[in-house]
Structures are given as C-alpha cells and as structure tokens.
Amino acid sequence: MKKKNSITIKKVIFVLFMTVLALVFVFPLIWMIASSFKYDAQIFKDINGLRAFTVTSFEDNPFFNYQEVLANIPLVRAALNSIFYIAIIIVLGMTLNSMAGYAFARIKFPKRDLIFGIVLALMIIPSQTVILSQFSIVYRLGWTNSYLGLIVPSLADPLFIFLFRQNFLGVPESIEEAAKIDGASRVRIFFQLIVPLAKPVYGTVTILTFIKFWNDFLWPVMVITDTKKYTIQMSLNSLFAIKPVNYGNVMAGLTFITIPVLIVFLCMQKYYVQGIASTGAKN
Amino acid sequence: MNNQVAKKKMNMESVTGLAFVAPALFLLFVFLIIPFALSLSYSFMEYNILKPDEKTFIGLKNFIKLFHDKVFLKSVLNTFVFVVSVVPLQVCAALGLALLVNRKMKGISVFRLAFFAPTVLSLVVVSILWYYIYNPNNGLLNAMLGMLGISAQPFLTSTKQAMACIVIMSAWQGCGFQMMIFLAGLQDIPNHLYEAARVDGANKFYLFRNITLPGLKNISIFISLSIVISAFQLIIQPMMLTQGGPQNSTITIVYQLYQTGYKFRNVGYGSAMAVVFTLMVLIIVLIQKKLTSKNNED
C-alpha cells in the first residue's frame, strides 16, 4: 500500500513538472491567441498577471481584430496565393522526385550509383550560398514577380529523392516481377503498382513540402514584388511594418496564418513524425 | 538470338531509368549546380545584378576587401557566437525532452505535441511574437520577470543581451524537431540491453552512460551537424527582431550576404561572402565525416 502511494506521488510530481515545461513551450502561443480577442488597452492591462493568457472580456464581436486585420491586409488572398503555388510544387515536385527515387532504387542504368552520390552530395549545399546566383538566373529568365520563379526552382529536392529511394528499396521486388511477366511497362508498374503501395511516404513529403513553403520567407521576398502576388509570410511582414503597431491586430494576423499549418500538422501528424524520424535514422 | 533480346531489354531499361531521373536531374542542374558554379565565378567579379552585361573580372579583390571589412568580420564572429551557443543548448534540450517523453503513459503524447508545437510555426511568426515578448517597455517577459521581483531588462535593445535573446528563441523554436529524432533513436535501442544490465544491478546513471548514450551516438552526430548547418544560416531572426543591431551586435554572415547581394545589388561582393561561408560549412561537414567514420571503427 505504502509503495503504491509513493508511486502515485512520483507520478503526480512528474506530471506537474511536465506541465510546467510544456507551458514554457506553449505560453507564447496561448498569449498570441488570447490577445487576438482583446483591445490593446486590455492587452497591456492584463500583461502583469495570468490574465494575459485568458480571454478576459468578451466584446460583442470577439473577432473584431480579425476583421480589422483582414480589412487592412489581404491575408486571405495571400493565403490563397501560397496554397496555389504550394499545391503545384507538391504535385509536380512529388511526381518527379518520386520517379527519380524509384529509378535510383529499382531501374538499372549506366552510372546510376555515381549520379545518386552526386544528388546526395547536393544536400549539403546550404541554400543561402546559392540564393544570389539562383536569383540572377530567375532574373535572366524573366521570372521575377512571377510564380514560375517560386515554383520551378523548388521542384527538385535531393532530400525527397533520397526519402523516396529509401522507401522504394523496401518494396518487395517480387511484386514487380509478377507485373513484368505480365508485360506491364515500367511506367505502368510505377504509377499503378508502386505509388499506391507507397502512400505513407507521399503523405510525409506532402506535409514536409507544405510546411516548408508555407513558412518560406526569404526567397519569396526576393522574387515577388507585386503586393497582389504576396505570399502569406510576406503579407504578414507588411502587417508588422504598419506603424503604430496595433498589438491585437498583429496577434490576430499571426493566429490566422498559424491555424492552417496547425491543422495540416494535426491531421497528418503521423506522417510528419515518421518523416522526421526517417531523415535522422538513415544517416 | 536470346542474347540480343536480353541486350535490347537492357537498353530499354537504361533508357527508362534515365527518363525517370532526367526531369529531377535537369532542374537540380539548372537551379543548384549552375548557381553553385556561378557563385564561385561571381566572387571574382564586380557585378551589379541590374547591369548583367557590365561584369568585370577583378581577381581576388572581393576577398581582400572582405578581410578588411569590419562589419563582415563582425558578422563572422556573431555567427560563430550564435552557433557555439545555440548548438549545445538545443541538442541538450532536445535530448532531455526526448528522455522525458520516452515512456508509456496516458497523455504523454499531449506533452510531445506541446514541445513540438513551436517547430510548426514559421520563423517570421515566431520572430514577430517574440519581438513583443521581448519588448523592453510593455513586453510579456518583463511583466513576468516583474512578478518574480526581477527588474526590467533591455533585451533586444542591448548589445549585450540581443544575441542571447536570439539564441534562446531559436532553441525554443527548434528543439522539438530534434526531440522527435532522438525519440525515434531511443525507441530503436533494444530493450533487452537495459534488462540485462538491470539484472546485473546497474543504476540509472550507468544505464544512461553505457547504453543510452552509445546507442544514440550516430543520431547525436547527425543532429548536431544539422543544427550547426542551419545555425550557420541564421538570418530571419535578426532580420525581423533587430535588423542586425544594436551596433551590429546581431549581424550575421547570411544577413550581410543578403543585404549586399540583394538589397544593394552587389552580387560579386555578396558571392565572395557566399564562397567564404560555404568553405566554413564544408570544413564543419568534413570534420563531422571524420568523427563519424572514427566512431564506426570503434
């Protein structure tokens, strides 16, 4: 009996400790969401206590900050812009990265391992080293201020080719052999047999791609100049630049653009975590 | 006859294979390999991006200028200070969190989610949020410190505290990601190793030192390396929080590179910075490779 008690106490202490630790990680988010429903005066009044983290006074219209922010800044349009170009990157990029991954895993062609080695080596080039010359290429192609400049350079990704290859290596060859005997072409085998089998890795790459480009800032800032074509992070930056800054508005804007990522993350958590784990485990 | 058929089949196979990799390889070539080569060549030129026809070869002048450029040297120093402080902090935090959440318990996934949540946010969102948290006048952090009886701090407005603020914010945002990788590594360590040691009467510290840590060796190296590389690329946080200030105390290499090459359109000089930067990252990668191969020989 006594032993059981001490175990429960230990457990309670552990949970308390973990709760405090978890709060350290989420307090800014709670503050952000709570403040997005308040007037600035209220935010500063509440800041000296735990009231900072709760919605203290309910206005007639709790969403007034959201309405103001959406009226001042075309966040919805920017969100749609981002979703549009990211969707294209996901569909096209995934197709060509997974085809390359499949060939590196399963099709024999001359110098295959050498080429794959070069693709792997490309992973260590820090993106910022090439960002200026990438921009000069996009500039010469006349793709500045166009989604082409955002999409085309972002399609091929060594990390995703690698992830797809590792995954296809795990598909039993006997499945393909049977189809080959039936006279199916490689293209048919790949799209009708392999792709459906590899759904989880496509899920992983979808979410990794979405979060990467939804949060991308530096490259869109360089390529896009027309405010109508602004991506979500860029338009958020312009919200930050309006002076004097209205805290409530900013918090509403931050919450607004964070929600889609949180939803995607929560829905596809399993794939995301698997993806992260596999990037580490294979090295 | 049969041989010929087989040969023809092989050729078909090769063509298909090359066709499968061609689109990806073409794009990687145009948007990664060529830019990499261009960076190298631009670094020996005087080149304004808006006047692409007026490139002039100036030899090593850009590099010589770099080593006399006080702001650039400061940015190198700042970048190193950032890397050296954020890497141990973030690796230890990630490992600590992974050990804490690596247990079977009801509701443990809620804690995992909480630690992981900041990593899903963009650096822009996180930076804006922390800008208000760090605000010295009516920011959240000073209010919280006030409740604990600690006097208000200048945070981002002080040359002494600004970089530390960026370090803490970056580790806070990033460590959940590496926690997940560590967690996967912990779960790969075979349980029977622990059981056998426990039977021999080993204590918790012994288990950690002799089973957990060696089991995580390769993952730790991988994680440290990936944090080092991303830490070297620090730009968004100082760009949003301090614009490199106060008094250049948070200016970083990549921020300087961006300002020079993009804002001021001086691609030649910016590319020279990029080349120096790449060399530094490459050296780190090579050192890591050495360490890993040594470890695997053990």
Written description of the protein model:
The complex is a heterodimer of chains A (283) and B (298). Chain A is mainly alpha-helical and 283 residues long. Chain A folds into two domains: 2-62, no CATH class; 73-241, MetI-like (MetI-like fold, Orthogonal Bundle), CATH 1.10.3720.10. Chain A contains 15 helices and no strands. In chain A, helix 4 (75-106) packs antiparallel against helix 13 (232-241) and helix 13 (232-241) runs antiparallel to helix 14 (247-267). The longest helix of chain A has 34 residues, at 2-35. Chain A starts with a helix and ends with a helix. Chain B has 298 residues and is mainly α. Chain B has one domain (61-297): MetI-like fold. In chain B, 75% of the residues lie in helices and 1% in strands. Chain B has helices spanning 2-42, 61-66, 70-101, 108-120, 123-133, 140-147, 162-188, 191-199, 204-215, 217-232, 236-241, 253-263, 267-297; strands at residues 45-46, 56-57. Chain B has a two-stranded antiparallel sheet. The longest helix of chain B has 41 residues, at 2-42. Chain B is flat and about 70 Å long. At the A-B interface, helix 1, helix 4, helix 5, helix 6 and helix 10 of A face helix 1, helix 4, helix 5, helix 6 and helix 7 of B.
